[in-house]
What we know:
alpha/beta
Amino acid sequence: MLLVKPRKSRKVLIIVDPTNCFGNNAGTIYAKGSEKYIPLWRDRILKYLEAGYAVIIVRDWHIAHEGDHSRQWGFHSLQGTWESRPVDGLLDSKYNDLVYWAYKGMDPNDHGYSATSGLVVWFDGMPDIMNNIRIVPLVHFLKDLEPEDVEVEGIAFDYCDTASAVGVAEEGFRTTLLKDLCPSIYPENDAAVIERLEKAGVIVTTSDKCPV
């Protein structure tokens, strides 16, 4: 099967912060048990790509500058470091150019929890020609894809996943969050987080009830 990167997509998958900072037990803000989610994300990505749908992988991309975010969480996911890299096993290298990559958290005084605060960086044409690079706010990029449904999952449920799903819903998209694909930092708060999501119009469900 020939897989291509879509410019329009009826469905879009957004995976938030599947990086070493959160998904590896040596990371600064490790979400306990995240490793077991990696093959599930990998499988979900492949299903979306095989169906011809767009996949956006969002990464924290902080700078080493004192601000509101670093005062709460400490310095983490700094640009270009091991912590900012995707977790091992997330994506076969042959699919790297078939997904879209987005980066968030560059403003030290903005927590940057939501993927909607990020920028999508991609190449329009041959990736070795720097004039073809495109940097687009994720919200604008999402609107250009014209999806009917946007699915959100990743790390962590109680912070960036929820902020991202709410942000996408606020932009007018039908938004689904798959709870079984979202580890939490503080799972004892999950019930209150689900209530917030549902009030924002986000559909909270599980992957077995949401086939690609």
